[in-house]
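Replying to the earlier thread about multi-chain prediction with a worked example.

Input:
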Amino acid sequence: QKEVEQNSGPLSVPEGAIASLNCTYSDRGSQSFFWYRQYSGKSPELIMFIYSNGDKEDGRFTAQLNKASQYVSLLIRDSQPSDSATYLCAVKKSGGYQKVTFGIGTKLQVIP
Amino acid sequence: GAGVSQSPSNKVTEKGKDVELRCDPISGHTALYWYRQRLGQGLEFLIYFQGNSAPDKSGLPSDRFSAERTGESVSTLTIQRTQQEDSAVYLCASSLAWQGSTDTQYFGPGTRLTVL
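Result:
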């Protein structure tokens, strides 16, 4: 079982719709969860991080964390063609200076 | 500089030659990661440096790959006897990884390595 699992996609949504990106992780002791966005040919950049169960909102983006189900998601409201990118989920285990582990990423295509 | 820098930005080499890639992290960042990303693929973890601790080398694909970091500054990734399958973008990231921090990684622009 991979430490961080994502569906590679592509996930296609029409412009203006809600895009839902999902991620599961294997280590129940994980403490920090990140969503990065990577445009084609560019380096990843952080969108959001979340520590606590529940929702965290930032503009059109909402991160959702459910530690009991070992599940983290990213919702993008009012999706725009400029949101078309690969979205990487990353997880950090608890305890000391643990490294961050990335999933393979989900490619999102927003259709105008 | 304000961000992570990497050099060279592009490297073309012949099969069998050695290459050295450089990463300058953000000043004060104790953690440094190297990743490999093949065309159309995800990030492949290579190595993780955290302060003066022994590096986590669990992602290095073979003994042709090695990396060093001097203190909390520059890191170099060396690939010996390059093979065509080493062709990829090599990304470096740094973070302020003290306990309680967000540990957000800041990525450099990458080095695109092409092995002919």
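Strands of chain B lie at 5-7, 10-13, 19-24, 31-37, 44-50, 65-69, 75-79, 88-95, 106-107, 111-115.

Feel free to reuse this layout for your own posts.
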